[in-house]
Design brief:
Elements (H helix, E strand, L loop, with lengths): L6 H20 L5 H17 L2 H25 L3 H17 L3 H17 L11 H7 L15 H4 L5 E4 L6 E6 L2 E7 L9 E8 L2 E6 L5
Parallel strand pairs: 3-5
Antiparallel strand pairs: 1-2, 1-4, 2-3, 4-5
Amino acid sequence: MNMLTSEWIALVMTGLGTLFLIGEILVNARGIFAILGIGFMTVYFTVALETSSLILMLIIYFSGILLIVIDGKLLNDGTLGVIGAACMLTSVAIAAPTFGSGLYAIAGVLIGGLSSLIFLKVFKRRDMWTKITLMDRLTGDAGYNTMTDEYGALLHKTGITLSDLRPVGTVRIEHKDYSAVSTGQWISKDTHVKVIQVDGTGLKVVPLTDEA
């Protein structure tokens, strides 16, 4: 008897698997969450699929996890994270033996991913996510030098974007490259911008056309 004929089991297996795998990415669980997550997802795919399709779906699912890790550690703009999430959802849906269990499996991934945020309240957060959320602002009151001489001198300087700012990207000012953030809008590559704010080693820029 196929275990996934009980559609709610797909919800449980993908939910717990994703909960622990995303939890391992978010917090330092010393690999325990990773082992649990891999176990749940392997059981789900093994029961749902034939051997010939099993490896492919596992690759797609865990490639999605890898893309989320790469996004969090290197890019921090969410693009690869969205693609990774889509890979995870696609793999569990395709693997499901029925349309209903596929919907339950997708719901499990979504619920598990969102529920993993609870771990942030209990366990130590991984360093790479503090870069994204900026939970601790680098202010003078916190004991940081909030404006180095080099970055402070960039205030009101103009430059050009080397990548799309969505809203984070790279700009070139006076022949040097810096990480910068827009005021919320998408700024395209090769746009002339002006620095309107410097906070620590972070630059906030606007297009020259928006300066007024």
